[in-house]
Design goal:
Helices cover 67% and strands 0% of the residues. It starts with 8 loop residues before the first helix and ends in a 6-residue tail after the last helix. It is elongated, with a radius of gyration of 25 Å. The longest helix is centred in the middle third of the chain and has 37 residues, at 120-156. It has helices spanning 9-13, 20-23, 27-33, 37-47, 49-66, 68-75, 83-86, 120-156, 158-172, 176-189, 200-213, 217-230, 234-241, 246-254, 259-282, 294-304, 310-337. The chain is an all-alpha fold and 343 residues long.
Length: 343
Amino acid sequence: MTSPVQIDDAEASALPASGSESESGGPEVKKAAGLSPGQLMWRRFKRDRTGVISACIVLFFFAVAILAPVISMLYGKDAYTLYGQDNLDLLDEFNMPTGGAGGMSADHWFGIEPNLGRDVFMQLVYGMRTSIYTALAATVVMVTIGVFMGLVGGYFGGKIDYWVGRLTDFLLGFPSQLFFIASMPVVVAAFVRPDEETPTALRAAAIIIVLSFLGWMGLSRLIRAETLTLREREFIEAARISGASPGRIIRKELMPNIITPVLVQATLMLPSTILSVAFLSFVGVGFVEPTPDWGRMFAIGADIYEQDPVYMLFPGVAMVVFVVAFNLLGDSVRDAFDPKSGR
């Protein structure tokens, strides 16, 4: 059942106020009233300059992550070659970059990594790729689990809702960061013997599992609250009376009506998940050498910031810009879906 399209105040004020066509419900009013909710959302979003700029920044970061191999080919360098070891002029006797600003030059735009002498620019590009891909996969898993648990508990109620709620409360009691640190070695050791090197794909899968285990509860509670409200609506009752199964009601009636909170919450979850991935690598239980990663770059920078403070600059600025832009994008998406919550 489709509800009539609501036009917010800004859209109503944009309609012509004079003329026989407008006053009598002419083409202009009909055109606006005939827009779908998605078209109205897109119209509101385009008017939000902050949201548009944030979306462009976020898309730029995703483009860099996707096109990392192409950038490496055009740049002529990669994230693994030890350029400082091959060219002794790039590092001094203390294995610090020669020259100013961390060894920045026409050949190495962001400088050279101390000790090993890898290219900082390519480390950052591939580090973004690793962190964003891992966080995106973990966010998809968290959203899937959260939506499923919230729908099941909210729709069926009773004992099912009770036990889903108790499981959620139990998991919320875990200290997340300590759990991440303690559980990562356990998950990895379950698949790899101590004398074997852990494959990067397995380490990424372990990070996704660990982050997903404690990341779905907030969304689940939100979806449960939405479901409790929707299941009493007339169109749900009509579907029940018509003989629709619970699975069909959840798929066809409930899920289309919770897309808005799911999308908004997902845009807010992704940047925090990226920070969690970086945190795990920073403390040494996430990605390790030689896999490029944002968190591992911060760990290296924390060890040499007194000798080479420039090394921390580029990954730090990139992380701040990406997280802030994504959070602003999430706010803009929320306001576009619900204009009454706008700033």
